Amino acid sequence: MPDNNTEQNIPHSDRISADLKENLAKIQRLFTETPDMVTRHLTIKQSGKQALLIYIDGLNDKAAINENVLRPLQQEMGENSQEIAVTVGHVEHLYSWEKAEIGLFQGNSLLFIDGSERTYSLDTKGWPQRNIEDPQLESSLKGAHQGFLETGDLNIALIRRYLPHRGLKIKRLMVGERGQTTVSILYIEDIANEKYMAKLEQRIRQINVDAIINTGELCEFIEDNPFSLFPQLITTERPDTTASQLLQGRCAVVVDRSPNVLIAPVTFMSFFQNIDDYSSRWTIATFLRLLRVFAFFMAAFLPAFYISVVSYHFEIIPLKLLLTLGESRGQVPFPPFVEAILMEITLELLREAGIRLPAPVGQTVGIVGGIVIGQAVVQAGLISNAMVIVVAFTAISSFILPNYDMVAAVRLIRFILMILASMFGFVGLVIGLMTLIGHILSLKSLGTAYGTPIGPVRLADLKDTIVRVPLWLMDKRPLSTAPKQSIRQRQSRIKEDTE
Amino acid sequence: MNSYVGKQITLFQFISIISGSQVSVAVLNLPRKLSEAADTDGWIALIIGWALSLIAGLAIVGVMKYYPNGTLFDLLSEYMGRWAGVLAAMLFALYFFYLMYDGLVRTILVTKTWLLPTTQSFVLMSLLLIPAYSIVRHGIRNVARYAELIIWISLWIPFVYIYTLKHAHWVYLLPLLKEGWLPILTAVKATIYPMLGMVSIFILYPHLKYKEYATKGIVIANSITMLLYLFVTIICYVYFSPEESHLFNDPVISVLKSIEFKFIERIEVPFISFYLFIFSLIWIPMMYLLTYCIAWIFKRESIGIPLRLLIILLAVGTFFYFPTYNINNFLVRQLFWVGLILEYIFPVCLLCYLWLSKFWKEERSSL
Question: Structurally, what CATH architecture does the domain formed by B11-362 represent?
Answer without folding.
Answer: Up-down Bundle (1.20)
